[in-house]
Amino acid sequence: MIITASTHAATPSEASLDLDDCEVLIGQRQASAYKKWRAEMQALSQKGDRQAIVALAGVANNVMACHEEALVPEQGWSMSLSTPGGTTETQSPTGIPDIGKRPGVLADLKQLVDRTHSAGAFDPAYRRISAEWVTKYSSVLQDRLAQAYEDAAGAYQSDCVLKRAIGKRDLQFSCAADRRVLAQLVPLVPADVRAQADKRAAEWAKALNPALPD
Prior knowledge:
Layout: H1 22-25, H2 31-46, H3 50-71, E1 80-83, E2 86-89, H4 103-119, H5 124-136, H6 145-161, H7 171-185, H8 191-207
Antiparallel strand pairs: 1-2
Helix pairs in contact: 2-3, 3-4, 4-5, 5-6, 5-7, 6-7, 6-8
């Protein structure tokens, strides 16, 4: 159900927060403490703190999982996430069919894409995760498709071409997931855009210095 993707140390305001709890994440419980934690993490992330960037990405992922569980409880689950600490497989609904009519949920989705994309600057797993969400909701994220393709291509270059083992990640799983997402995005992105994205993705992967948070 919920994915714990953050690997940061707990801050004082987080000590009593359960960041896997949907009631906390959607504001039904401990709203003040959660707001304070987000403000702290946001301030740190703006300074380039990788732990905070990963923490915000992981929680944003959980927020969206909560929305999906609440809005499409009868659907099958299929989402997967590879974290710096290893590979975790989970399940998520196939998508909220009327998400475009839900401004708050759509805003959370866009924030999730932004935050996983930011974490993807130094972790190919998050590049793929960001691309997965865009692919899943491509009907309302048309303006993110080119970015998503480049993100997926970067993950593919790192995991499948360069075969860089980062943390305890299962490269076979990661590479297979990268291929799947990339294949889904190919028909959605023009060939000339893909060509330029492939070039930048390869350059990014070669230059990557994956100093991941502990």
